[in-house]
Design goal:
This protein is mainly alpha-helical and about 110 residues long. It has 2 domains: about 20-50, no CATH class; about 55-105, no CATH class. It has helices at about 20-30, 35-50, 55-70, 80-90, 95-105. Helix 3 packs across helix 4 (about 80-90). About 15% of the residues are buried.
Length: about 110
């Protein structure tokens, strides 16, 4: 219908740049001295581990961070949590906030 506008919904997009970081670490390892190698190898292992983290866990982490920053400390899937999340991210629709809060409750911080 004409004249009715829907507020654009904020979508939470999980971006991963672990491949680029891993490639940079491999390059650094190729040129590393013996003293630098252990630290770079540990960093490479951490990047490999982070690359396997599921998107749902990353979204849950994002929600927990937003809730903590807003001062909310209760259950992640409560009405108060959804309200706090929407106040922290004003462009977030009610549906998206509910879905994200459920993800956060399924993956505690």
């Amino acid at each position: 219908m004409f004249g009715l506008r829907r507020t654009p919904e904020l979508h939470v997009l999980v971006l991963r740049d672990a491949d680029a970081v891993a490639a940079a670490l491999r390059d650094a390892l190729a040129e590393a001295t013996d003293a630098q190698r252990p630290g770079l190898e540990r960093a490479a292992a951490l990047v490999a581990e982070a690359a396997t983290t599921p998107d749902a866990v990353l979204r849950a982490r994002w929600v927990h961070q937003r809730l903590a920053a807003s001062g909310y400390a209760g259950p992640a899937d409560s009405v108060a949590a959804v309200k706090a999340l929407r106040e922290a991210e004003p462009g977030l629709s009610l549906l998206a906030a509910v879905r994200l809060s459920r993800d956060a409750a399924a993956h505690p911080a």
